[in-house]
Hints:
By secondary structure, the protein is mainly α. It contains three helices and no strands. Residues 107-126 are annotated as: Disordered.
Amino acid sequence: MASTKDFDERQNLLAKLKAAEYGYQRSKEQVIHLDRKINEIEKRYTKAVKDNRKSFRYVLRQRLLVVERLRSYYDEFASRKSDEIRIIWQMLFGRLAANGDIIEEMRQLEQESHSEEEDNSDSDNE
Length: 126
């Protein structure tokens, strides 16, 4: 009975790890997108300064501040997810990823987990 509980806990942690990894990947994608947006706004702001278009400068400066703040929120979220991934990884495997590539090691361990699952179902049938 304890092995089933351990197996369920491990599956639950693997699911949490996958969810955290997904959140991390998506937030990093958003950071990249917002970086591009910041560059676009900065170019437009620089042109408005050069052309002495004060009304455009004000609006673009406000927009830049909002997008930069939004980028920092996503960056903070990615940092938290990264920490969460490290903690779950440590709980699951008792160590950090050897080469720092958590995703690849997670896939390998997931495949091993599926083969253990098949072995457990075979032994239950006997």
